[in-house]
Each structure stands twice: as C-alpha cells, then as structure tokens.
Specification:
By secondary structure, this protein is of the alpha/beta class. It contains five helices and five strands. Strands 2-1-3-4-5 form a five-stranded parallel sheet, with helices on both faces.
C-alpha cells in the first residue's frame, strides 16, 4: 500500500510520513500541489492524504487534477481550518475528512478503511 501525503506544513507532513512508515505503510510526502502532481505521474499510489488549505492549489483542486491521472486512487482530506463548504465538498469527494491535529491512530484507522484493510 503506497500513500502520498500532501501538506504545505513540511515538518508536520514529514512527521506523519515517518509515523505511518513505523506502522507498515509506504508513505511519501510533498509540500505542494505541483510536487504532488509530479509524484503521481511517476508513482502509482493507492491513497492520497491531502491538506485542504494550501497556497496556490487547494486540496480540493489538487484532487481534481490527480483524479485525471489516477482515477482509482482514494483520498482523505485533512484540514486545520477549512470552511463548512470545504467540509461538504471534501466529505463528498473523499473517503473521509479529518480535522487537524489528527491522532495517528485515527488516521491509520481511516487509511485502513479506505484501502479495505478492515
């Protein structure tokens, strides 16, 4: 199971990737939408965890771009301060929408659900 984490908070996303790798996931991370598009062109991910609020390209916009490249990839949205509209749009377009700070156990549970591992 290969996971891509995308968040403009590099310290947070790198720590999440490390914690997921300790739990047996192959997790890679990037800190921008453009980097995520490049990574998805180069790799076949099962799931992407996207920050909703990022500069230049939101997680919702990024999901639309990634969906065209890898239609079967699943998504989880994370946000520290998304609007109610973001929540509705994200919840409708992803497996789930989590609010930061998220407990690693909750994220692992949602990843496993998304990937049909539970």
């Amino acid at each position: 199971m290969k996971i891509l984490l995308v968040d403009d908070e590099a310290e947070l996303v790198s720590a999440l990737a490390e914690r997921l790798s300790f739990r047996g996931f192959e997790a890679q991370w990037v800190s921008s939408g453009d980097e995520a598009v490049q990574k998805v062109h180069e790799n076949d991910y099962d799931l992407a965890v996207l920050d909703v609020k990022m500069p230049r390209m939101s997680g919702l916009e990024l999901r639309e771009k990634l969906k065209k490249i890898r239609p079967a990839m699943k998504y989880i949205f994370l946000s520290g301060h998304g609007s109610e509209d973001d929540y509705r749009a994200g919840a409708a377009e992803a497996v789930c929408y989590l609010v930061k700070p998220v407990k690693i156990e909750e994220l692992v549970e949602k990843i496993n659900q998304a990937l049909g591992r539970e």
